[in-house]
Amino acid sequence: MALSIDKSKTALLVMDVQNDITHPDSPMAQQLGFAGMIQQTGMLNKLRRLMDACRASAVPVIHVLIDLEAGVQPRWPHRGAFFEMVGGGKVCKRGTWGGDPAELVKPLPGEPVVYKCIFSAFVSSGLQELLDGRGITDLILSGVSTDAVVESTAWDANDRGYSNILAEDCCVCGTQEAHEITVRRMAGRLDIATADQIIAALG
After folding, report:
1. Contact 99, 51 (CB under 8 A)
2. Distance (Å, rounded) from C-alpha 65 to C-alpha 100?
3. What is the DSSP letter of 100?
4. Measured on CA atoms in the order 11, 12, 15, 20, is the torsion positive or negative?
């Protein structure tokens, strides 16, 4: 069945596409494999095309950035290598190069930017209030990484009553295998499409 999109009720979420997470000069992006996978897949170029198509179709592009100090996080997890790595709060700091959006996909003037403090885009960010205020019921999900922010947000969005489309080639994991496993795991609770398929549906 062809992908159907109601442009008046849909928004594109661009999540965690920040220098510390994506840039080849970032030690964290290199260590986690994200920089290599972005280069290998051309993900940022595909995402930029999707962003521009949404802009041309009056579909809001909402930028979700991680800021470990955003909102209220009463406790911070301490188990696991990821939390050991970021627990000092030195990565993705707002106002630093590492916390800035990747140059190719940075917000245009007037586009909403929300800051969240952990995986789901809804945590301590005010995202739901922004979406509900605009009458948004459907989300196009993109970002880094597929198995962290993207999947966490998909679950959270479903629990809050939103319907999702995964832009599968506009997100990456540390490996292609991890990305493909995550996409298969998510398949039963959202629509999966490429950037080209979504652009065609925006028509």
Report:
1. no
2. 8
3. S
4. negative
Residue 139's nearest CA partner among 127, 147, 123, 125 is 127
Fill in the DSSP letter of residue 91: S
Q: Give per-residue pLDDT as tens, 16-54.
A: 999 999 999 999 999 999 999 999 999 999 999 999 999
Structure tokens at 105: 């996909």
Tokens standing for residue 78: 């301490």
Sheet holding 61-66, edge to edge: 113-116, 61-66, 10-15, 138-144, 163-172, 191-193
- In the numeric block, which tokens belong to residue 198? 């979504």
Spatial separation of the C-alpha atoms in residues 10 and 174, rounded to whole Å: 28
pLDDT in tens, 127-186: 999 999 999 999 999 999 999 999 999 999 999 999 999 999 999 999 999 999 999 999
- Distance CA(82)–CA(198), nearest Å, equals 32
Which phi-psi region, left, alpha or beta, contains residue 161 (left: φ > 0; alpha: ψ -120 to 50)? left
> What does the alpha-carbon distance between residue 35 and residue 122 come to, in Å, rounded to a whole number?
25
Cα separation, 37 vs 86, whole angstroms: 21
The pTM for the full model equals 0.93
Task: Report the 10 Å Cβ neighbour count for 196.
Answer: 13
DSSP state of 110: T
Structural element, H or E, at residue 139: strand 138-144
Instruction: Provide the CB-side half-sphere exposure for 183 (13 A, CA).
Output: 21
